[in-house]
Amino acid sequence: MSIAAAFRSLKASSAITWKSTGKLQQTVANCIERTGRGLHSGDVFTVKILPAAARFGRCFIFRSTVIRASIDNAVKETPLCTTLSQDGYRVLTVEHLLSALEASGVDNCRIEIEGSGDCDRSVEVISD
User: Fold this and answer.
1) Any bridge partners for residue 85, and if so which?
2) Pairing of strands 25-28, 16-19
3) What is the DSSP string of 32-101?
4) Which of 51, 53, 76, 81 is the most buried (most CB within 10 A)?
């Protein structure tokens, strides 16, 4: 298969949307939504992965706070999970979801997380 044919087949994929930026970047084509229990807290959370524009990056949205998936937002003292924090809000157990997005080639997406109860200032990516 030629490079052009391979590119056309990837571009036609229903799971990936291509945005022209000079550098090829990918996002999800549609909203992906799952509800389940957090591994550490046992609380119920809903995670939505939504398409995002090129150069948006991978960002978690919790209570209108944008938490970029960046080493700059990583909390150093969290045993058994990776936690991101911004303005006092925290998203726990992000490592598996971020690894899956990287392996899938998703460069840009909004990851909205909601809790079933009265989540104070932290949420957890579900383990289901």
Assistant:
1) 90
2) antiparallel
3) EEEEEEBTTT--EEEEEEEE--TT--EEEEETTEEEESSGGGB-SS-TTS--EEETTEEEE--HHHHHHH
4) 51
pTM listed for this prediction: 0.78
Rg of the chain taking only CA atoms, in angstroms: 16
Is residue 107 within 8 A of residue 117, CB to CB? The reply is no
CA distance 15 to 94: 22
Kindly state the tokens that stand for 100.
């899956």
Tokens found for residue 12: 């036609």
What is the CATH architecture of 3-124? 2-Layer Sandwich (3.30)
Closest CA to 73 of 81, 64, 82: 82
Nearest alpha carbon to residue 92 among 126, 57, 48, 68: 126
CA-based nearest residue to 51, from 63, 33, 64, 37:
33
Give the whole-angstrom CA distance, residue 22 versus residue 5: 19
